[in-house]
């Protein structure tokens, strides 16, 4: 899509592209290897396009979406907290409203190459970048197993 649309934007020296990635792009995890790798690619691609197209007047943003209340997440059987930050059940996911995610993306467009919407998601990114990799991968693997109703993975 970028290959198709970016040349016209570049020629006009205006336009905007938002590439939606995921927290999965920041860490490998069991059961989601190809998904995590594709999301990592999107992050790197967004940063590269930000540099290349930004010099031509085209804004590019890589949006690293965290938990967002979407129909596909609901179909996966995820249980959401009743509202932002008030889930009493530890299995409840505090997810952002899609409109809030989109609003933050639009507000960040033209200001930064990468944006993570929501304070809780930004805190998660900090942990993902600072924690020992084995701990990060184990945590991401456990979350994937839980999300898909699969057995937890353990290394022997």
Helix/strand layout:
Blueprint: H1 2-12, E1 16-22, H2 33-54, E2 59-65, H3 71-75, H4 98-108, E3 114-115, H5 119-130, H6 133-148
Parallel strand pairs: 1-2, 2-3
Largest sheet, in brief, is: 3 strands, parallel
The number of helical elements comes to: 6
The coarse overall form would be: globular
Q: Give the class from helix and strand content and strand pairing.
A: mainly alpha
> What percentage of amino acids are in beta strands?
5-15%
Radius of gyration: 17 Å
What share of the residues lie within helices? 40-55%
Which blocks of ≥5 consecutive residues have pLDDT under 50? Answer: 84-91
Could you state the order of secondary-structure elements as H and E? HEHEHHEHH
- End-to-end Cα distance: 43 Å
Please, what is the average pLDDT?
89
The gist of it:
The chain is mainly α. The protein has helices spanning 2-12, 33-54, 71-75, 98-108, 119-130, 133-148, and strands at 16-22, 59-65, 114-115.
Please characterize this protein's 3D structure:
This protein has 156 residues and is mainly alpha-helical. It has 6 helices and 3 strands; from the N terminus they run H-E-H-E-H-H-E-H-H. It has helices at 2-12, 33-54, 71-75, 98-108, 119-130, 133-148; strands spanning 16-22, 59-65, 114-115. A 3-stranded parallel β-sheet has the order 1-2-3. It is globular. Mean pLDDT is 89; it is low at 84-91.
